[in-house]
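Internal tracking record. Fields below are filled automatically when a chain is submitted to the structure queue. Please do not edit lines marked as system-generated. If the sequence contains nonstandard residues, flag them in the REMARKS field before resubmitting.
Queue: standard
Priority: normal
Entity type: single polypeptide chain
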Amino acid sequence: MAQSTVEPPDAPHADISNQLIQARLYLPDADRGYYRATRFDWSGIIASLTFDGHTYFGRWFDVYDPNLHDSITGPVQEFITGLGYDKAPPGGTFVKIGVGVLRKPRNSPARGFFTYEIVDHGKWTVAAHADAVDFLHEVNDPASGYGYRYKKTVRLTRNQPQMVLDQSLESTGRQVIETEMYDHNFFVIDKQHSGPDFEVTFPFKLTSATDLRGLAEVRSNRVVYLKELDATQRIRTELKGFSSSASDYDIRVTNRKTGAAVRVTSDQPLSNVVFWSARTVLSPEAYIRIHVEPGWTMTWRIFYDFYAAAPGGR
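SYSTEM-GENERATED OUTPUT FOLLOWS
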């Protein structure tokens, strides 16, 4: 498919609201879905979310292609391991959670940004409600031995400016599911460019694994920008300092110019943190470890609390 700056008008979607928050979600569809690449989970793609006049998610890229790995919006998730990839022969199959059964093209290391052939999309079941969307994805790959039943509900909490991701993963194959999952959190807050008006805060003292090249710096428990990024500049670093307690999964992003803010928490401990940013988007990426024995189910929750900070504050 040719790349375009125009988005498809017929991409399936659902609109939800709890009166305080209004959000639009794109729905998985192999033929007309907004996102059809193989990096990210196809469920929970949020096209837009508005609270108290502030916007939090939206398109951050210039060129749109549904088969491109990062033509996607919202707090999308990736299960980073291609299950069974290493043992699959060239032409064999492996499994990507939230995507389906994929084909290994040749005997080479897995490539996270590559779009693989989808052999079997699995079965998607979607139910949209006034304030929530339920997703169920069922996949089975006898060749690799992996199978799963994956549920996600994107829910707006009644009478609160909060969005919750309720998730569960059951291993229905003969193999143990062992991977990590992260929320990329493509925040596009009030369409403001990434720069000194933004601040990202954690509950622990941070260390950066790489030099941020004068674009940003770590100050105690905060990531702060030193300049507004231009169209060619990117920031990417791993952040260390977290403990094994779920209380360290507590990230706040604030735009001090507009007052828009969001707090992201979970009932799971962090396994890694990456901070990535371009001019039009910023992404504190929080990882959790996923381990599911055959016949067992793992559940977890991630909470997004939206609020307005006083302009100039945190």
